[in-house]
Structure formats: C-alpha cells, structure tokens
Amino acid sequence: MMYMERKQMFKFRLYPNAEQKRTIDIHLEICRRIYNELLGIKIETYNHTGKSLGKYDLNDCLTQFKTERKNLKIIHSQVGQNVSDRIYKAFYNMFARIKRGEKAGFPRFKGKNRYKSITYTQSGFKFFNDKKLSVSKIGDINIKKHRDFSEKNRKLIKIKTMLIQKTPTGKYYAVFSCVVDVKPRKASNKSIGIDVGLKSFLATSEGTTIEHPKYYRKAEDKLAMHQRRLSRKKKRSNNRLKAKQKVALLHEKTANQRMDFIHKLSCDFAKNYGLIAIEDLAVKNMVKNHNLSKSINDSGWSLFANQLLYKAENAGCVVHKSDRFFPSTQLCSACGNRQDMPLEKRTYKCSCGLVMDRDINASKNLLNDALKNTAGTAGFNACGDDGVLSSLKQEATQLVGR
Fold it and tell me: Are 196 and 380 a contacting pair, CB within 8 Å?
C-alpha cells in the first residue's frame, strides 16, 4: 500500500530550569512588544494611505528595530520574523471576514502575558537522545518525548516549525508541525449517521446514544468558589497570583477532560466506519444566544467535528456534512414525511407507524442524505456497530425562540 503525505502535529511537555524559564519569558515579552509596535505601524499606515504593509515591509521595520535596539538581538532571527508573519496573517483574516460581509475591526494589541508562544521555522532547534531539546538562544531543555515522529505506519519527512508555548498555568510545551508519510488504514464499508445535541452528546443511526459528560457544568461550583476568592485578593499581591493559578488550573483540567473525551470518541468512529454522516452546524451563530452559549461551548461540537475530519482523513474514511438547513429532525427516516417537531416532543411519531427517539431519527436522516449524495462511492452500507452525530441546530433554534 502506498504512503500518503500528510501534515501532523506533535506536542511534548518541556521542563525548563529556572534560568531557561526566565529566558523564555523574556523572549515572549520582547516578541509582544515587537508585535504591538509593528501592528501600530501597520494600522497607522493603512489609516493614512489606505494601503497595507506587506510581510517584507514589516521585516524591514524589524531589521531597523534591531539596529537601534541591542536587546532585540537576544531572540532568534526566525522568531522575530514570525512576529511579522502573525501580523500579516491577522490582517489577511480581517480582510477575508470583511469580504464575506462580516464586521471586522483591526487586530488587537497584546496586553501583558497575552503573547503566549514563539515559533522557530525549520532551524534553531535539535534533539539530543530524545531527552533534551536544544533551542538556539535558550539552551538545552528537558523534554518528555512520549512518542516518536516515525512509527509503524508513519514516516517523518521533515519538521516544518517548532513552537514553544507557555500555558496560563505556567507549563511549557513544544509543538512540532511536521510533514509525514502515512500508510492509510483499510477503510471499513460500514456507515453511520451522528446527531449531536444538548440532552445527550450525540445519537447514532444505530440507535445508540452517548451521554454528555458536562465537564464544565460539573466544575462550575468549584470554579465559582475560586473566582470569588480571587476577587477578594489584593491586586498585584502574591496571594492573588496563587488564587489566579488555581482558577487557571481548573479551567485547564476541564479543557483537558473535554479534549480527551473528544479525541477518543472521534478516533473510535474514524477507525470503525468508512462513511460518517454529520451536520454542518453554525455553532458561531448559536453561541450568540446567552441561554445556550454555556452549554454549547461545554459540548465542544466544533472541536468534535474538526477532530473527526482530521482523523477520518488519515483513516481513509469519508465524512459527509449535510447542509445546515437540512430538516433532519422533521423528516421521517422511514417514509420521508415531514412534520413540525417542537423541542418538547422527544419522540418522533409518524402516520406510517414509525415511533423513534427524535435524535436517533435525525441521525438516520443524516445517514440517508449522505448515502444519497455519495452514491458514486462504492462499498458503503447502512449497518454498523457504533454511531454518532447530526442536527442539534434545530433544537438550539427552537430554544432561542422560547
């Protein structure tokens, strides 16, 4: 079987000593100041001339800064150039949003401790015995390399970038963006429909449901207690810093729990199915409703869909997204009859005799839509052992109307 070229990220924990931590923090602060100054120049130029400075213009400004300020030579040249790249990409995204008809302001300036990573591109770093990462201008940092870049079904071609990241809890990570050759798995001929929701995390066309773990909701009381304690601490005191750390640790724990749950779930679907039917949800619009935003953000629908797409590509399976206006909740999965389904009706009853949970019925409709639109893809059937995903959109829309 032939290998396929893919991009893949690898994240490893770093354990810098006290001096290396100070050096990394100094580099982050220097980059933050460069970012703000270059951003100010770019905004001012645009306001006065109507033209935006390009990437090379920003690099010329950076070169001028280095001749005037000796402290800028502390950081690696590629790290400084990456600051220019970030500003250029931020403006590119701003203009892209305007072109789509959205409201978009200028990129924001970075406040203290808001610049969280530095990037090396292809050079300035190397490994020593898989236990130390030698980084230019910083030193040899202890690293926990818990997996290899090359394994049985994966071969490393090259490392494109290496990013050093500092989390709000004071932990340090190295994130490698790599190009690898991957041997795709033999795709399954099983197919499944998945409908996500607020009552349960998802329902599948096979009749199974997966309960919502609600990690944030479970931690909410404890988080509120620590936030109250934080608000009572004197500003800029050591006790306030300690209280702030506890809040950050709790947020980090819930985020890690959610990510672990979604990684395992999406991996299981990608491994066991050749066709996965989901719905293209407009999550960004849904969270604008304050009655739903907390539950929607706790669900992690977008994260689940993104991880599913990423893992499906490597597994060689197909993910079909039904249009967000596809009435998966209203259609009968047996005869195609359409009826209104207000939120309080949790069971779908049709004149043809079908009686089924509304979410499972929606997931079957998503699968039917996927099978119809992937008719040219041979070998798929509607049978399987597990399943998940689909139309929470309508459920959320009805809640908004309440």
Answer: no
